[in-house]
Structures are given as C-alpha cells and as structure tokens.
Amino acid sequence: MHSPFKLINKNILVTGASSGIGRQCAIDFSFNGANVFLLGRNVEELKRTKELCAQDVTIKYFSIDFSDLGLLSNEIASICDEIGPVHGFLHAAGIEKSLPYQHLKIDDYQCLYDVNFVSAMEIIKTISNKQYRGDKAKYVLVSSIASVIGRLSLTAYAASKGAMASAVKSLSLELAKKGICINCISPGTILTPMMIKMMDALTEEQRTARKESFPLGFGEPSDISYAAIFLLSDAARWITGQNIIIDGGYTAQ
Ligand SMILES: NC(=O)c1ccc[n+]([C@@H]2O[C@H](COP(=O)([O-])OP(=O)(O)OC[C@H]3O[C@@H](n4cnc5c(N)ncnc54)[C@H](O)[C@@H]3O)[C@@H](O)[C@H]2O)c1
Q: Are 27 and 3 spatial neighbours (Cβ–Cβ below 8 Å)?
C-alpha cells in the first residue's frame, strides 16, 4: 500500500553524508525506499555510509569539497547527468566555529557562510533546473537553533545559520512556482562528531549544565533524520518556507 510518508523511488542528494546527521539521514532515507546520493569529502567515510545503507536501493557516493564554490555548479550538474531527476535534497554539510567576536577574522565569516549556506544555494540553483528536477521535489537545509537564539561565541556560526533560515522564506516563494518545497530544520544539541569536539572544550560542569538545559536531554541524529524523512515525503506537500525547530524543548523555555 502506498504511504505518503515513505520515500520510495525518490532520488535524494545528501551533503555531509560522511558523518553525523548527514550520515544518519542517508541511512534512514535508504531504509524508507529512497535512492541516496552521498556527497562528502572523505571517500572512506562515504563508503562506510554506503555500507550502512539499505542494499535494495541505489546508493552512490561522490567526493566533493565546498571550499571551492566556483566549481560546484558544474560538479553538481555532472552528478545529476549521472543520477537522473532529483526529488530531494538534504544539506547537512556544515562547519562550526566558537570564537568571541573580537577574535573572529573576515575569513572565519566567509568560510562559515560559504560551507554552511552558499554551497546549498549553488546546489539548489542547479538541481531546481527543469532539466534536473524531479516531480514534487523537496529540499531541507539543516540550520541550527543558533538561527533563533543567542549563545556566547557563536556570532559567525549563528549568522551563517540565520542566513539559511531567512533565505528559505524568500526562496520558497520562487521555488513554489516550480512545485518545489524548501524548509530548514534547526536542531538543538545532537551528539555527533562536530558536537562531541565542541563539548571537549567544555568543563565537566559546563557539559552537565548544557545537558540539563535541554528538557528532553541531548538529541540523537535520528531525531533529525525522522523529521527530514517527513519533510522530503509527499506527506509534506503543503509545508514550505519554514524553520522547524527540533531541540528537546530548549526554545520552549
Ligand atoms: N550536532 C549538533 O548538535 C548540531 C546542532 C545544530 C546544527 N547542526 C548542523 O547539522 C549539520 C551536520 O552537523 P553534524 O553535527 O552532523 O557534524 P559533522 O561534523 O558530523 O558533519 C558535518 C559534515 O559536513 C561536512 N563538511 C564540512 N566541511 C565541508 C566542506 N568544505 N565540503 C564538503 N563537506 C563538508 C563534513 O565532511 C561532515 O560530513 C551542520 O550543518 C551543523 O551545523 C548540528
């Protein structure tokens, strides 16, 4: 029986598929019937993600680095030529930087902005072309609760994540004309390699306080992948331009 919540026969591109949230999304999309195309920098880790995915769907990986955005459009176009119509896109690639504003350099802002935000816009420019877009395509960008709340030393990171959340509002209006939906998911603290590295810099006391600040405790990558499955599925056909916060109750306080 057809379920609008499944991703059967959808071709979905996932950035940041070599670890953390992106890897979990790729795995869970595949077990919900999607063909998944893994983008990332570390080929060994992409191979590992492929091994963890369902084996009865198509899984391919492509090595790509967002530090050179000039090449990105062409690289994505040649991937699309190979994989066929793109029905879904999840942008989980991202970098984090915690630094007091007085230590931030122009390059820090630029780098965060390029990897977290501009790369997604470049990819969307290509995959939303008539030539490459699948029917009822849906895009999800992984932003952060830093897009809606303040936290010490996160000025540059928060700006890049806020850019994603604001951009999807305007972009959703243009993409609606093509029948495409786009939304952000903004996670709170999810225990992934990025977050574990950040937590290592905290004292035991600070780590405990951070955990206690989330009414439901820390999140897991699947808390994000399950929401992404919904937003990429036909069940979410009337949801667009939103920033969906998934944070175990943190911003409810
Ligand atoms: N983990 C959290 O608590 C949390 C909270 C809020 C938002 N996020 C966001 O979720 C996304 C995924 O983060 P994660 O926690 O899984 O971290 P992660 O470090 O495990 O994954 C980040 C991914 O981005 C990729 N990446 C980084 N720079 C890249 C570049 N130049 N080119 C191509 N790929 C690049 C990495 O290879 C990796 O696969 C990020 O955008 C992050 O900002 C995470």
A: no
- E strand segments, the chain: 11-15, 35-40, 59-63, 86-91, 133-142, 181-187, 243-246
Chain segment 157-167, per-residue pLDDT in tens: 999 999 999 99
| This prediction's pTM | 0.98
Closest C-alpha among 147, 116, 134, 124 to residue 242: 147
pLDDT in tens, 216-235: 999 999 999 999 999 999 99
CA atoms of 147 and 186, how far apart (whole Å): 7
Strand ranges, E, within 41-148 = 59-63, 86-91, 133-142
* Pocket residues: Cβ below 6 A from ligand 1: 16, 18-22, 40-41, 65-67, 92-96, 115-116, 142, 144, 187, 189-190, 192-195
Residue identifier of the C-alpha nearest atom 41 of ligand 1 = 94
Buried b (16+ CB within 10 A) or exposed e, 194-224: bbeeeeeeeeeeeeeeeeeebeeeebebebb
Architecture of domain 11-246: 3-Layer(aba) Sandwich (3.40)
Which ligand 1 atom is the nearest neighbour of the CA of 194? 19
